[in-house]
Amino acid sequence: MKRTTIKDLAKMLQVSTSTVSRALSNHPDISDSVKVRVREVAELLNYHPSDFAINFRRNSTKVIGLIVPKISMFFIPAILDGISTKLKKEGYNFFILSSEESVAIEGENILTCSNSRVDGILISLCAETENLDHFKIAQDLEVPIVVFDKSIDQNDYDEVVFNNEESAEKCALRLIDMDCKNILAVFGSANLSITEKRKAGFMKIMTENKSTNCHSIFADSSDQARELVENLLKTEKYDAIFAMSDEVLAGIHIALMNSKSDLNLIKVVAISEGILPKYLNSNYEFEKNDGLKMGLKAAEILVQKIQNKEKATDSNRYFI
């Protein structure tokens, strides 16, 4: 069924669209009798005002663009729950775009958000992103942007991230406390600051502890982590493996299963949301990252920037 518009109401009532619009908004210049007639016809034709049109006239769409590197079980669902909860509470809708781990698509997504006149953008960067030059279109339009979870070293945009160094340090200390001597540390995409920070924190503890030997590798996906670890296990013996994320952990777990490793002899510690390790193996230990808090905080910061009309390039870093 065709949606009834203000033009349809105006045509039936034989008045101008502006008269209908003002009558529906209870404008004092419109007589009570006209208001009653307009509302009766609106009800008869099942007319509902367009939120987009109303917000457009107010120079606001009440829509947020949410850009993620890819949509998968490893992109912390709790983060999305936090974002959705906060935005809904504040009266915002949002749509999700996936960059498919491609910086070119990430740029297209920024353009799509800008052309859609979103009030703001929440973005977690893809593995290929090395700079934020493709943010310029949104910056020029003064669209507020908040980066969350996966970022790079930058000082131009607000970002909400986990305390990655501290989490990795705690994992390293756990392994040392368990008297592990030969450790394999598996990190994610090498160019992301989340990887850099977690490696720095983990290796700091490893370097300080002279009695341990630590070998580190990088994997861009769970499949690559599985392949690299499987190959290493053919020739090397480790008494512990560190996984910097749930995605990396999934690949490590399959590699351990395929190599028929004795999990009683290999300690596994990960930085995790806390759900995946329990399903894989109850012996896996983890340092929990609270995705719900991150999502709530990222959405809160963006809403504040929108409401306070802050410039797109005001920059602060918030740790969860």
TrEMBL record:
Question: The HTH lacI-type domain covers which part of the protein?
Answer: 4-58
Recorded hits in InterPro entries, A to Z, give: HTH_LacI, Lambda_DNA-bd_dom_sf, Peripla_BP_I, SBP_2_dom
Task: Report keywords, A-Z.
Answer: DNA-binding, Transcription, Transcription regulation
Q: What is the top-level taxon of the source organism?
A: Bacteria
Q: Which Pfam families match?
A: LacI, Peripla_BP_4
Q: Matching Gene3D superfamilies, A to Z?
A: 3.40.50.2300, lambda repressor-like DNA-binding domains
Q: Does the keyword Protein biosynthesis apply?
A: no
Protein name as annotated: Transcriptional regulator, LacI family
